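Request: Give me one sample?
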Amino acid sequence: MVFDYIDGGADDEITLRRNTERFLGHELLWDVLRDVSTIDTSANVLGQAVSAPIIMAPTASSRLFNPRAGERAVARAAHTHGLLYSVSTLASTSIETIAQETPGPKVFQIYVWKDRGLVREILQRAKAAGFVAIVLTVDTPVAGNRERDPRNHFSIPPKVSAHTAAQALVRPGYLFDLATTPPIRAENFAHIAGGVGSIVDFINTQFDRTVTWRDAAWMREQWDGAFAIKGVGRPSDAAQCIDLGADAVWVSNHGGRQLDTAPATIDLLKPIADAVAGRGQIILDGGIRRGSDIAKALALGANAVAIGRPYLWGLAALGEAGVNRALDILTSELQRTMALLGRSRIAALGLDIVADVQDADTRSRHLDR
């Protein structure tokens, strides 16, 4: 049930597959006889100096994947690698605890809840805990239809039934950790009378289907730090985000977990970059599995990429060591890819290194340069 929660997507999982497959639709073109003795992957993302333009994307209830460490392991690994960590509003560890674990730059992800007082309170807590930016997610007016989860009788927090117990018994170490650690819950809202119960129930209760651009503007007014809007797929919406005062547009289809048959995010990137026209930063998630994927996204207009599943697999397998290993793989692959491309700096990854495999004319033009 935990594997499918990480691995699965909405409906027929077409968008889930497209996110990764469409990276294969872009070829990389390299320069030779370039000095690549030193590869510099450093960047500035949301006003923060980072060792590489990689953000740990917000993922709810990370203790579900590693009951003992959860978000604390991810935060520490991000700090070890000098990367931004974006904490989910539905994290299973409080933002105050996460802040104690790492002095590194942290971003807080949030929705516009029906209870605006709850929004103000959590933003004040994030500011007090030293979070440097917020990310407003706007692609979730309702939860997507993720069919693997009800098939597995899955819930957050996990509920014990004959079905879930039978699954957990084949992983006794996980079952032991789950039984000997505090209940998995939306820890940032644990102070609400009676708790919030199931995270899914909390989402269905608090998600506001009436949210409009006016509410996004209200959110911008509530926060005086860096501000990004996540879940954007249209160039016109991206431009409006910048007009509203966002510092960054986050191109995302929620990892294929919301609207199925939506385009892969890599195919949305170039038109959105054209619409933003340098007036703000662009972050892309969805389908990043290799360092070469990161290079392609940066070349097509992203200032940074965000990863979710790659670090969750590491977390589920080996805790903090697993997250560190996942980041080691991606950062070393990015460095190697840049060296093979003949580009020693992130800023040098431009459109001239990418050609669409279906566009022979484009490839020819690139090769003639």
